[in-house]
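Case study 2.
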Amino acid sequence: MRLALVGLGRMGMNMARRLLQGGHEVVAFNRSPDKTDRLVEEDAIGAYSLPQVVEKLTSPRVIWMMLPAGEIIDEHIEQFRTLLLPGDIVIDGGNTYYKDDVRRSKSLVERGIHFLDAGVSGGIWGLKAGYCLMIGGEKAIYEKLLSVFKTLAPAEGFLYCGPAGAGHFVKMVHNGIEYGMMQAYGEGFQLLEASPYASNLNYGDLAHLWNRGSVVRSWLLQLAEDAFREDLKLDEITGYVEDSGEGRWTVQQAVETGVPVPVMALSLFQRFRSRQRDPFADRVIAALRREFGGHSVALRGEDAGK
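Prediction:
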């Protein structure tokens, strides 16, 4: 099948490569043309504008976008609304808020253009191992693209999740679970590091052990092993942890529907905390303890452990 891949970042570039390796014809487009040129050298068809993308496809055209969530997707959707014809298909594979999918789907359907939302997981390892795909939209359109999904995903690695927005909703919850898992691993290793046995433990060996039949085995633990092999105490990096929109959307959804998700919520808030130094809240608490109980405080320039 011939389809376009719009957005050649870390995920989009390797997805295009996997499609090429699977025998598909890929029309490649990126705002910075050097990435397009790179894929052309790997037998992709280069396009250097959105009209060119459309010109190099045949009806029904299939365009898979791998773009950052937000206004940039709306900008591309608006252009495709005018460039595409009824029966053409647009897929959003980025990390999009599911309510935006519903809105964008309606906008395209008004012009007879089909829309699928695809939650994609697999990261930089997807080129080799395949991508887990969670797909929403019209089921008939999903079924027309099974050959594409089979190429991108490992065996049994894709699923139709429901109407527009369902794919990204499932991916959102997936990422919320991921936050909680990473937080638990982080806290566990911190507890080990603070123990009297820390000097005897090699965390790479321990992560490897836990991935051999343990109930906490996972791919994340395998990645932890890799990280510890490179830097046993992770001294080369700081504990500054960013968060994606999906973690916030998961907690927001829980509030809207009244579903308790304490682990996901606390793991998100812990990421906020990781980016603060000497937060004001802690200074307020220290001041209150001094005021009501005469407890000592550490003044600026002094060691807190005094």
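The CA atoms of residues 3 and 230 lie 39 Å apart.
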